[in-house]
Design a protein that fits this description.
The complex is a heterodimer.
Chain A (H helix, E strand, L loop, with lengths): L3 E10 L2 E11 L4 E5 L6 H9 L6 E6 L2 E2 L10 E4 L11 H11 L4 H15 L14 H13 L5 E5 L7 H18 L2 E6 L2 H7 L2 E6 L2 E6 L1 H6 L4 H6 L6 E10 L2 E6 L2 E4 L6 H4 L6 E6 L4 E2 L11 E13 L4 E7 L2 E7 L10 E7 L4 E4 L9
Parallel strand pairs in A: 3-8, 3-9, 6-7, 7-8
Antiparallel strand pairs in A: 1-2, 1-4, 4-5, 9-10, 11-12, 11-14, 12-13, 14-20, 15-19, 16-17, 16-19, 17-18
Chain B lengths: L1 H8 L14 H27 L5 H16 L6 H43 L4 H27 L4 H14 L1 H20 L7 H26 L10 H6 L4
Classes of the chains: A alpha+beta, B mainly alpha.
Amino acid sequence: MASISLKKLNKTYGALTVVHDIDLEIADKEFIILVGPSGCGKSTTLRMIAGLEEISGGELIIGGDVVNDVPSKDRDIAMVFQNYALYPHMTVYKNMAFGLQLRKASREVIDQKVQEAAKILDITHLLNRKPKALSGGQRQRVALGRAMVRNPEVFLLDEPLSNLDAKLRGTMRAEITKLHKRLNSTFIYVTHDQIEAMTMADRIVVMADGHIQQVDTPQNLYDRPINMFVAGFIGAPQMNMLVSKLEKRGDGYVAIFDGRELPIPANFDKARIAPYEGKEVVIGLRPENFHELAPVDINPDNIAPFEAVVDLAEPMGSEIHLNITAGNKAMTVRVSPRFKAGIGETAKLVADTTNMQLFDKETERSILY
Amino acid sequence: MQWLRDMWTKEGPGIPKNAPKRTGLALFGQIFAREWWEMVKLNILFILTALLIIPLPAALAAAAFVCLAFVEDRNSYLLQDFVDALRRYFWRATLWGVLFGCVIGLGIYAIGTYASAARTSLWMAAPFTLALVASVFITIMACHFLVLMVMRDMPAKTLLRLAAIASIIRPLPVIAALLFVAALWLAHIAFYPVSVFMPAVLNFSLGMFAIVFAAHRAATMVLALSIAPKPASETEATDAKHI
């Protein structure tokens, strides 16, 4: 049983507070990812869970026990670092076996666990090699193996894929996800890469400036961001934020952006929107909410024409990322590779507001949730 | 100091899983490049043990046991494995070491005697040749015997039979290894005093590694024969990857 609770956990360095009273419940066997920009406190939080950083305040509870003062080695956790932290003078086998040796495990047990982990990670052929001969991906597997042999209740992974090239990162993402399912342990993973977070996590914790912004499933974070930070952070290219004026039209509302009327979907909670009538709000539209032609499967009431000047076209193969300007606002939209408008020309697009987000301009919090 | 850190932390080229395995001298060189530091330590361990004279045969067996791990690309904890092997093979190695030592000594004595006699009477060339061939064969057999002994526990009779078969089917690699050992010592003598540290650093362990490397394939082949006993346990089976 390795559920983890963070209760008002904080970390200060003198007058500087880097983690502000965060509360978080992590279920047993959950794969949770802490994500956020550099300096947001995600690694510090992980290191506090690991016992590598002293906790300045609050409580850290693992498996029902407060472990604030429990030494790292007694917390039944294993950590994988970004730089692998392998012992360069030891072979892969000895790197993996070292933790067990310190715990006075018998040679048979050590051998069995090392061989088992090596088989799972497909590094059996590397066991008698030194780290200097290994590539980044192989080193990362060894680092994972070293954590695995200890059979901990909780795995802590601090940006383990950051040093790998893009292709290998993709492979290792899948490997780690499979490993989590196979080991059935709690995984807490830190990354600044939202693709890693979206593809691997059961739940994502979005952090900024030492605060938790939102904790939710990847899809919910994408569909229902609680504030402008989360909306902008999750999704690539990021969500377009347009300052617009909210006005009533008949029974419904429209957001007016640079003279363009963008319909607010009828299913949105009108009671939440009503107080903003006549005021400026920020509307959020993701790049995929723009189309060259109105899709047939979308409610026509949620469609609005949207013309903008093309600044740059970035062909991605399966799609083109168009950098456009509308009302002095730079935006990014996704269009099909067959899209023809050239740079400097006006692109005739339609905006689909079905999944539009609405934010309070002052508080930057979502009006909808 | 960046270069020093890089030396430790810089990523390597990686080791492809399905890369064709090197063979022969290339493999010998690869293992040596990988394990040379372990061999230096093994050499020191061997010298420290062999200085006491009586444990010399057991030290040879222990060195062979560790070298076997190098050849089979297995993990080894040098000191622990050496000491364990020293204990495990002490009596067997001492007994067979004395026996083979006596027989080879007798052979060398016979070679010397018949060679002197052959100078005056040509017909003594026949026993000289016989003594030479027998001594060389016994030496090769002793090498195979040593390697087989540390590869799998088996009755003395079976061990002798398998060592003899191995010596018949693949004598050349061991002869080459013995020549390599001789060359190591000749180099020590020829380049003295530059080579003064050779015996202290590598001669014994590298020589033993060469012998184990050379005898390993034949030992593997004879252990696959039906007369060879099967591994006693799962662990032993894992240890004996060559089967």
